[in-house]
Structures are given as C-alpha cells and as structure tokens.
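batch job 7 of whatever, protein = SNX7 protein
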Amino acid sequence: DTSLAEVNSFSPSMPISPASMINQYKFEDEPEIRDLFITVDDPESHITAIETFITYRVVTKTSRGEFDSSEYEVRRRYQDFLWLKSKLEEAHPTLIIPPLPEKFIMKGMVERFSDEFIETRRKALHKFLNRIADHPTLTFNEDFKIFLTAQAWELSSHKKQGPSLLSRMGQTVRAVASSVRGGVKNRPEMFTEMNDYMETFSQKINVLDKIAHRIYKEEKEYFNEMKEYGPIHTLWSASEEDIADSLKGVASCIDKCCKATEKRMAGLSENLLPILHEYVLYSEILMGVLKRRDQIQGELDSKVDALANKRTEKDLFSEEIGKLEDKVECANNALKADWDRWKQNMHCDMRSTFTNVAENNLRYYEECLATWESFLASQTANLHVEEDSEDRP
C-alpha cells in the first residue's frame, strides 16, 4: 500500500495525474474480439420542396458469415434510426435499447442544422449503432442487419412490411393502460429494487445534467467577457508609457487564460454533457423496460386470478397460462442479464467521464496558474532592476 504523501511525491514511478492513474486500472471483463465495425460520418444536407434533412454515411465492416459481403456503405437519415430503434423495442421489449438523440434539441444550446448540431448528432448516432453492435443479442437482430446493408429503396420497401402506425399506437395505449391499473401483485423483489434504484438514479442524473448545462452556460459567459477584457489592457497601454509593459503582460495572460478556458469548454461539451444526457435518456428507457416487464407479469397474474375465481374453464386457459409463464421467465432473464451489463457499462462510462473532467480541470488551473506566476516573476525581476538602478550614485 502506498501512502497519500508518497502518491503526491514527484517520484517518476508514481502516477501524478488522473490521466496516468486511469491507465493503472485493470478491468475484470476484457472485451471480446469484435467482428462488426460501424462508422457514422460524412453528413450531407438535402433540400427539397417539402423538407430539409441530413443524411449520414454508415460504413460497416464485418467478418460474420451471415453477411453477404465484408463491407457495406449506405446513407441513412434520422428517421431511419428512429425506425430501427422502434423495431428493436418491438422485437426485444425487455432489453435495454440504447438511446437516440432527441429530434429537437434544447433551446439556446445550438441551432438546428448548424455545424455544431450536426456533429453532435453524428457522434450520438455513431455511438447508438456501436452500442447495438456490442450488445450480445441486439447485434444479431435481422432489422439491424437490414439497416446496415440495404440500399435506400430496399429499406423503404422493408419498412412498409412492418406494423402500421395505428397498430404501434394501439400497442402503446394498451401498455400504458396496463401500467396504470395498479401495481403488479407478484412482482419479484429484484425488480422492485430495480425500480427503486432507477427512480433515485433518474432524479440524480437529471440534477447533474441540469447543473452541468448551467456550468457550461456560465463558463461561456465568462469566456465571452474575457475576450473583451484582454484587449482593453492593450488599448490602455498605448496611453500609459510608464506601465505599458505591465499592461501588455496582463493582456497576454488574459489571452492565454481565455484560450485555456475555451479548451475547458470544449472538454465539457464533448465529454461531460453528452454522457450525462445519454444517461438521462437511459433512465427513461429503463423505466419503460420495467413497465413492459410488469405488463407481461400483469397478464399472467390476471389469467391466474381468473382461473382461481373459476370464471373460466381450467383446460381453456391452462395452455395460455403456461405460455405466459414462459414469457415472464424469458422477460425476467433477459432483463436481469441486460441490467447487470448496463450497470457495468454505466459505472465505466461515469468513471471515465469524471476522471476526464478532473484531468481537464487540473490542466486548466495549472496552465492559468503558470501563466500568472510567470507574469509575477517577470514583474518582480523588473522591480529589482529598477531599485538597483535608483540606488546607484
């Protein structure tokens, strides 16, 4: 064991920053060899008489035998990603489907179709597909394969074979109606604990997300003021010959700190904000998954109650109850496995994100401190030179 004093020493053998410390961690579960690589890039604007939209190039490279080729390149728009997500939810109602970025963004953050918005969405769509590719079950979904390989007209034709919008709406209405009828009688304790955990997690992650956005907004305001603050000292130096060098030095320090602040803001917008918001969306998805599991449990409970009350013949519903019991068991097992996997990924993401923030903050304050210390040292040296010259006869 190493003491805190030893860790904080400048021994070359000891890690001295979060960036070097994170490399010391050894995770128990090493990732398996991947056989599916997906890239989302090259956003392209399309303007028609009806609408304006963006398409993204999706490049897939794979060594899987079920694919006819080892490489595919297609273009997809946001609505295609929404279709894929809905098909995955339909096929796997008790698995945790990765979130997509919302169709509409938060007002005041970035403008729609701006370069910043398009790049933020591209990164989110890239992560969405790669999270599916890394999932042990979702990665083999047939609709996912079609999404990656089919040309635009083939995908459009395939979409028309799915359930209609009214059918999907009907399923949603039934699910909501079932969830508000009351709590599930025979819900296993494990899923009650999951539900309680997610309620707390949702509350905490939403607070973190709001505070992070507020910090970013305040940092941006501070940055904009600093950009105006530095040049004022430069202009002032033109009319103050005796302190011109000092004023120019202050202006230079402010300019360096301004650039450091800009880097820090980039770190927040690229690393912290997207991860926090992704898990805000995950919290909503998980609450939905738990409700769908409860719906399946509720169907089984209602059939068992009907049989117990002798409102129906035993032979008529015994087979149906057996099928529902199998369905509940499959749903429970799927959710248990996905829950453990999600928590492990979440802990890894949060640890990496907050370590990144700590490293960025450390680098920012060290850079600013070094800038001002250098300025103070130069001013002290100049002051000594002036004092020596005054003492000479």
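notes: Residues 314-391 form the longest helix (78 residues).
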